[in-house]
Amino acid sequence: MNMHSSFLKEMGITEWMSRDASRIEAQPAEAPQQSQSKFKSSEAVHATAVTPSVERSPKAHWLFFGSELKTDTQLLFQNIIRALGLLRTEWSWSSPNRDLSQISSPIAGVPVVAVAFGGPATQAITGERDPLPQLRETILALNVESDEEIPVVATLDLNQLIGKPKEKALIWQDLLLARSVLQNS
């Protein structure tokens, strides 16, 4: 069983095959590095990054918004990052309560997608008031003052998922929706 399969099995996904498994091999996780990215909040990032053996420049940037990750959810989030095959430079974690007016793409021309974990996070960054079940499976927009429109995909709160494999599969569906948004950008 390859590494992607074990991460996806933990998320409740039973069958999946990577098209590029031979191209990128995951190495042990490293501690997160603080950078000057516009996406960094003043809070420490609570997850580690996977460093692939093949260096590549970022093709997209994923903004993740949610409440503080606890021990078990840190591991779940790390597994999500690994399953998506993201480099450390391709994602950032932020509190939904931060000032969103300065958010933009960290690299010009690189598409950005936001993923909001939980109803409160989704409502805070989009301004929507509907409950999470009605916001899921819809492309929303980040509530920013600039002309740039950043798509948002709402999903379940990671802190409420430990031990619920069927709901972990719903998160994977939402992440695939976010990936398709990036591919169509």
Describe the model:
- With 185 residues, the chain is an alpha/beta fold.
- The chain has a 5-stranded mixed sheet with strand order 2-1-3-5-4, with helices on both faces.
- α2 links the parallel β1 and β2.
- α1 crosses α2.
- Poorly predicted regions: 16-53
Rg, please?
15 Å
Task: Give a quick account of the main beta sheet: strands, pairing sense, barrel closure.
Answer: 5 strands, mixed
Q: Number of DSSP strands? A: 5
SSE pattern: HEHEEHHEEH
Mean pLDDT over all positions? 77
Tell me the strand order in the biggest sheet: 2-1-3-5-4
Q: Estimate the global geometry from the Cα principal axes.
A: globular
Q: Please tally the helical runs, counting DSSP H or I stretches of 4 or more residues.
A: 5
The secondary-structure class comes to alpha/beta
Estimate what percentage of residues fall within beta strands. 5-15%
What distance separates the N and C termini?
A: 33 Å
Q: Strands, helices and their partners?
A:
Blueprint: H1 3-10, E1 61-65, H2 71-84, E2 91-94, E3 112-117, H3 119-126, H4 132-135, E4 139-141, E5 151-155, H5 165-183
Parallel strand pairs: 1-2, 1-3, 3-5
Antiparallel strand pairs: 4-5
Helix pairs in contact: 1-2
